[in-house]
Amino acid sequence: MRFSEDFINFNKEIIFGEFGAVAGAQIASYLVSNSTNSASTISTSAVIGSIIGASLFWVATRIYDKIKTSRRGFSSKRFVEDMAYFTPVAFILTSLIYYPSLYYFSEYLIKNSGHVTIPIFFSQAGAFLLLLIALNFYKYLLYKYTGREL
Fold first, then answer.
1. How far apart are CA 131 and CA 134, in angstroms?
2. What does residue 91 show for φ and ψ, rounded to 5 degrees?
3. In the chain, domain spans
4. What CA dihedral angle connects 50, 55, 58 and 60, to 10 degrees?
5. Nearest-CA neighbor of 94 among 13, 11, 14?
6. What does pLDDT average to over the chain?
7. Which pTM was predicted?
8. What's the Cα-to-Cα distance from 5 to each of 9, 66, 150, rounded to whole Å?
């Protein structure tokens, strides 16, 4: 696969989504940690905050990129088609890789360090790296077998 503008934008959108995930997880876990010391509850709040933050940032960046870089003008039909190819697979990969990794990494680190912010950040970094590899592999397979670029 070549490193085209589409490939770079795809990864940029995922990375900006992760910025939203980091912000959402940090805010949610910090707020919940003020009312409980349960590592399990704090880890669950980190996952929920991450879902909300990632979704908002990713969609905003995706729309911005499609408007800015579209060669033939923004096409809502093409945007919806891209979402149909990406969203179900991203949801499955996120559910199977990212959120379980985030939960278990963060729970382990919170229990062993007694802190919240730093373990959540490092847990997200590890989980995100696994997800980024999986999503790029999916993008590669989609291109290889269908010729479709996201």
1. 5
2. -60, -45
3. 5-146
4. -130
5. 14
6. 85
7. 0.73
8. 6, 12, 11
